[in-house]
Automatic annotation (TrEMBL), chain A:
One of its GO terms (biological process) is protein ubiquitination. InterPro entries: Sof1, WD40/YVTN_repeat-like_dom_sf, WD40_repeat_CS, WD40_repeat_dom_sf, WD40_rpt, WD_repeat_DCAF13/WDSOF1. The gene is DCAF13. It comes from Ailuropoda melanoleuca (Giant panda). This is DDB1- and CUL4-associated factor 13. Pathway: Protein modification; protein ubiquitination.
TrEMBL record, chain B:
PANTHER family: WD REPEAT-CONTAINING PROTEIN 46, WD-REPEAT PROTEIN BING4. Residues 31-165, 652-672 are annotated as: Disordered. The keyword Acyltransferase does not apply. Residues 657-672 have a biased composition (Low complexity). The lineage of its organism: Eukaryota, Metazoa, Chordata, Craniata, Vertebrata. The keyword Lyase does not apply. One of its GO terms (cellular component) is small-subunit processome. This is WD repeat domain 46. WD repeats lie at residues 414-448. InterPro entries: BING4_C_dom (IPR012952), WD40/YVTN_repeat-like_dom_sf (IPR015943), WD40_repeat_dom_sf (IPR036322), WD40_rpt (IPR001680), WDR46/Utp7 (IPR040315). It comes from Ailuropoda melanoleuca. Residues 499-577 form the BING4 C-terminal domain. Residues 96-111, 142-160 have a biased composition (Basic residues). Its main location: nucleus. The gene is WDR46.
Length: 445, 672
């Protein structure tokens, strides 16, 4: 007879002293872990609920401006520094860690229309309603010195926007035409026009640095190549585009914030159909900015809210609003992709977390592991109706909520009408136009 | 659709609580290396490698010159490796293996950085075991969650890609888990006869003599003739034993140290006993009914060792005692209970009563979740399926019915015996069910698929009690004898030809329970309690986070909180516990149809003239009137589809017509 009984030595399973860690032997045998799927489902449900519980995105409000904030700029080298221009011509530089204004400049008479930093971070440019372009040093003046711009360029017309080249000492302004300037000269290197309307914003492509995009009030988006004297091509939309923003990771993708409450993500190689139409806002979209990862962007709207959209989704994943925030005019996603700043009509700049329920600060390794595990679970069970409902739920102010309902009804009515027309007309005489193509009027090359 | 078919799903096991992060990291690291080549590819690559000469670094040259002497440059060095490799007998025994095991055994490409560096060591010695360690197929199969035999559904390329990625991830997880088997500390026990010796002839005394002192101490008899026949129950960790005698004797003890925790006499017949592992069951409904209302929240005795609670089915009502023997609750809604089962992950106490009702009591909140009328007379045969928490009831007409609290009807009925069913047991994997009936038959059924009988055997007197051990041993109590049958391994049914062990007791067997994680079978009989040694019965390696026999007070408290947090709702009990991870195709189609119905018009097909289906427009329900609306909501309440957890999945459809109707109603209700 050969016999062996299971006989464990407790010393192998119990810690020796109180100072030791508890021993936790593991066995991943599935029969020892029954109800794997239901338990994971409940864990995912709990994680989703906790995510909503901890969703407190609002971090700080930077107040000090004495008029509405019209434009924002990030510092290319310092995460803590942010610049803002207001409607009374004042430019302020803020320190985000201290949440304080560190410098105030009366830069222009009238609005500060545009502000941009130089790629090296030593100076910045502003344009204003007083038809000037001013270059300022990033550091404040020394003791006894006066606050003066480094250079001032007097133009003939009002400039409405400015953007700096990402690698060279060149910047572009827009107004009645798009001007490309060398920093050393007082006259533009070249001016480009296509049509006669005022251009509201101009943006350099961060990857293909010679490319520019601009949008004008005659409803078009025009693309330029700095190396040639004429514009490349333009696309005409139903309504006016307010701003565009290039994807920092994909050179040929840009997103346009439109007056018709939508955002359009275009592939510049095929402008006739947008890659995605992002719709969730209930009023004109005023500004858009990409996250440095190129996966998401944030948009600011006249409906007093900002929304975060994934690039490949047509619906937003997040909406931020507060009782006091009025029409949001400008928005920026910080370079560490963790925060969002928005400047609004009621003179405040607000700082938000990009992930509403994210825990700030250093995480321990166990916290990190738990976070990753929960994230994976949420991803795994995201399509389950109960979890989806909780994850999707957002509280909205009554004005936005009722407007959403109203617009849903309007949209439904339009669609019904279209269907009826299709139903009662000769087959083939009425064609169905997809939502993507509906808003594109023409592409001109 | 296949298990885990939802796009992009990856399944971390319940066990991998903390492993996800590290797993991701490892996976990314492996992704950098290109997919492993087939068997004939590496020489080709090698040739390419030789043609494209790698620029030689100065430090490389030095080491090769000093260490290997006159050895040539890297390309030829690799070639030599290639020549040497086949000398290892690596492919001899793994020639016929599935893809899953072959993959990690393949030698990696010589270009891979991680592989070449250890091979070209300073001494010139070679790694004798290049590549990852081999994984046995059987072990890897144990951990696999996706059924590879099913083909991927036809889908768009993007979805398909995600499915394939998910599948690859899943495969990798199973291999990793299989590899971690190596770290398990304990080996299972065994009992083997000398050549020709029948293990069934070996007596307990012989085993006790042969084994070590600690194991020998696990064999004991409690001579309790006075309060006779006993039923008994071990706690899930296997540390504590609770037993109750027919004449009212109830006791719990830490059976390893033989320390008595409490002993009372309830002065009433005890029919069944179960240890319930939750700290604060607060049946709010029943507190008012408690004959001895215990508002001793300030009493310190409550906090001393509130390790376990004891559910005792007494003559009239169900009583709950704490482990001091203080009565906490008397649950009068469960009356004349004959059998008890505790579902630990759902915190449900299932009771079968003489009245024919199967009642589920949620012990964490103290509510009765469901009271189901089995419509089969007195119930006194009950067992739980530990795999899916379905309750099996044996009836006097020879059927076994399967119940879940979510359904008013049985999930299935199996005709097992001619004559009544005397005992039912289900093994820990939920694959096999053993039944014994009044026809003296002992049968084993396969619970997968169509509930086919696998084997049967006639016993001289028929078995009155059955129990499965963790490793699949089947014990049967036949009057005063306990017979134990063993199978080939853990995942095989016990073969009924030759018993593995037999033992005669001093009285008729009244209760059987294998101790978890110990090679011990507890037998309650007329003469008291016997703890039998059954080598090879229990799972040798426990998981410290699930049920740890050696856990400390703090660990137990932490575990309790975690367990309560992830309490599985009673509605999720169904035949296939993995159904929640699958796509509910029926509801999906239904929803699609409803959506089209709601929108009246779907996107016209590209070809041909557009013809529009005239679909009925749903009219809104009339609230406040006694027709339509009320009826719908009433059907909704009982329909499993109205449950928000369940709408993504289906229970096994039992009554297709009524189900689809209620589902339709639910979907329509939702649409409005």
């Amino acid at each position: 007879m050969k016999v062996k009984m299971l006989s464990r030595n407790p010393d192998n399973y119990v810690r020796e002293t109180k100072l030791d860690l508890q021993r936790v032997p593991r066995n991943y045998d599935p029969t020892l872990h029954p109800f794997e799927v239901p338990r994971e489902y409940i864990r995912a449900l709990n994680a989703t609920k906790l995510e909503r519980v901890f969703a407190k995105p609002f971090l700080a409000s930077l107040d000090g401006h004495r008029d509405g904030v019209n434009c924002l700029a990030k510092h290319p080298k310092s995460l803590a520094t942010v610049l803002s221009g207001a409607c009374d011509g004042e430019v302020r530089i803020w320190n985000l860690t201290k949440r304080k204004c560190i410098r105030t400049i009366q830069a222009h008479e009238g609005f500060v229309r545009g502000i941009c930093t130089r790629f090296c971070g030593t100076s910045f440019f502003t344009v204003g309603d007083d038809k000037t372009v001013k270059q300022w040093k990033m550091d404040g003046p020394g003791y006894g010195e006066e606050e003066e711009p480094l250079h001032t360029i007097l133009g003939k017309t009002v400039y409405t926007g400015i953007d700096h080249h990402w690698k060279e000492a060149v910047f572009a302004t827009c107004g009645q035409q798009v001007d490309i300037w060398d920093e050393q000269r007082t006259s533009p290197i070249c001016s480009m026009t296509w049509g006669f309307d005022s251009i509201s914003s101009v943006k350099f492509n961060p990857i293909e640095t010679f490319l520019l995009g601009s949008c004008a009030s005659d409803r078009n988006i025009v693309l330029y190549d700095m190396r040639q004297a004429t514009p490349l091509k333009k696309v005409i939309l139903d309504m006016r585009t307010n701003t565009i923003c290039w994807n920092p990771m994909e050179a040929f993708i840009f997103t346009a914030a439109n007056e018709d409450y939508n955002l359009y993500t275009f592939d510049m190689r095929a402008l006739d159909t947008p890659v995605m139409v992002h719709m969730d806002h209930v009023s004109a979209v005023l500004d858009v900015d990409y996250s440095p990862t190129g996966k998401e962007f944030v948009s600011a709207s006249f409906d007093k809210s900002i929304r975060i959209f994934p690039v490949d989704k047509s619906r937003s994943r997040e909406v931020y609003h507060t009782k006091r925030m009025q029409h949001v005019i400008c928005v920026k996603w910080t370079s560490d992709s963790k925060y969002i700043m928005c400047g609004s009509d009621e003179m405040n700049i607000r700082l938000w977390k990009a992930n509403a329920s994210e825990k700030l600060g250093v995480l321990t390794s166990r916290e990190k592991a738990a976070k990753d595990y929960n994230q994976k679970l949420k991803e795994k069970f995201q399509h389950h109706p109960h979890i989806k409902r909780i994850a999707r739920h957002r509280h909205l102010p009554k004005s936005i909520y009722s407007q959403i309902q109203e617009q849903r009804i309007m949209k439904e009515a339009r669609r019904r009408k279209e269907v009826n027309r299709l139903k009662h007309s000769k087959p083939g005489s009425v064609s169905v136009v997809s939502e993507k193509k509906k808003h594109i009027v023409a592409v001109v090359k | 659709m296949r298990a885990g078919g939802l796009p992009g799903f990856y399944k971390p096991s319940v066990g991998q609580l903390r492993g996800v992060c590290t797993w991701i990291v490892v996976r990314v690291g492996e992704m950098e290396t290109a997919p492993k080549p087939g068997r004939d590819v590496p020489p080709k690559k090698d040739r390419l490698q030789a043609k494209k000469k790698k620029p030689r670094r100065y430090w490389e040259e030095e080491t090769t010159l000093t260490a290997v002497g006159a050895s040539p440059g890297p390309p030829r060095n690799k070639k030599r490796n290639r020549e040497l490799r086949p000398q290892r007998p690596k492919n001899t025994n793994i020639a016929k293996k599935s893809r899953i095991s072959r993959k990690p055994q393949l030698p990696k490409k010589p270009r891979e950085r991680g592989n070449t560096e250890p091979q070209r060591s300073v001494s010139g010695a070679q790694d004798p075991f290049p590549g990852p360690a081999p994984v046995p197929v059987e072990v890897a199969r144990k951990f696999r969650r996706i059924d590879k035999s099913k083909k991927l559904p036809h889908s768009k390329s993007k979805t398909r890609n995600r499915l394939e990625v998910a599948e690859a991830e899943e495969e990798e997880i199973s291999i990793k888990a299989a590899r971690s088997e190596l770290l398990l500390a304990e080996e299972p026990g065994f009992l083997e006869g000398e050549d020709g010796e029948d293990t069934a002839k070996i007596r307990q005394a012989d085993i006790v003599e042969a084994v070590d002192i600690a194991s020998a101490a696990k064999h004991f008899d409690l001579n309790l003739r006075q309060f006779g026949p006993y039923r008994l129950n071990y706690s899930p960790t296997g540390r504590h034993l609770a037993f109750g005698g027919r004449r009212g004797h109830v006791a719990t003890l830490d059976w390893v140290t033989k320390r008595l925790m409490c002993e009372i006499n309830v002065m009433e017949a005890v029919r069944d006993i179960r240890s319930v592992w939750v700290r604060h069951p607060l049946p709010e409904n029943d507190r008012a009914l408690t004959p001895f209302p215990l508002n001793n929240f300030s009493s310190p005795s409550r906090f001393l060792h509130s390790e376990a609670l004891l559910a005792v089915a007494q003559n009239r009502w169900l009583h709950i005692y704490d482990n001091q023997g203080i009565e906490l609750h008397c649950i009068r809604r469960c009356d004349r209970v004959t059998r008890l089962e505790f579902l630990p992950f759902h915190f449900l106490l299932a009771t079968a009563a003489e009245t024919g009702f199967l009642t589920y009591l949620d012990v964490s909140v103290g509510k009765i979740v469901a009271a189901l009328n089995a419509r089969a007379g007195r119930l006194d045969v009950m067992t739980k399926n530990p795999y899916n928490a379905v309750i099996h009831l044996g009836h006097s007409n020879g059927t076994v019915s399967l119940w879940s609290p979510a359904m008013k009807e049985p999930l299935a009925k199996i005709l097992c015996h001619r004559g009544g069913v005397r005992a039912v047991a289900v093994d820990s994997t939920g694959t096999y069910m053993a039944t014994s009936g009044l026809d003296h038959q002992l049968k084993i059924f396969d619970l997968r698929g169509m509930f086919q009988p696998l084997s049967a055997r006639t016993l001289p007197q028929g078995a009155g009690h059955l129990a499965f051990s963790q490793r699949g041993l089947l014990a049967a109590g036949i009057s005063d004898v306990v017979n134990i049958w063993a199978g080939q391994g853990k995942a095989s049914p016990p073969s009924l030809e030759q018993p593995y062990l037999t033992h005669r007791l001093s009285g008729h067997v009244h209760g059987l329970h294998f101790c978890p994680f110990e090679d011990v079978l507890g037998v309650g009989h007329n003469g008291g309690i016997t703890s039998m040694l059954v080598p090879g019965a229990a799972e040798p390696n426990f998981d410290g986070l699930e049920s740890n026999p050696y856990r400390s007070q703090k660990q137990r408290q932490e575990w309790e909180v975690k367990a309560l947090l992830e309490k599985v709702p009673a509605e999720l009990i169904c035949l296939d516990p993995r159904a929640l991870a699958e796509v509910d195709v029926i509801s999906l189609e239904q929803e699609k149809k409803e959506r089209i119905e709601r929108l009246v018009w779907s996107r016209p097909q590209c070809s041909g003239p557009t013809t529009l289906p005239m679909l009925p427009v749903p009219c809104p329900p009339k609230y406040g009137t006694a027709d339509g609306g009320c009826h719908i909501s009433r059907t909704l309440r009982i329909s499993p589809l109205s449950n928000p957890h369940l709408r993504a999945t289906t229970l096994r459809p039992k009554l297709p017509s009524s189900r689809s109707q209620s589902g339709r109603a639910a979907a329509r209700q939702q649409a409005w």
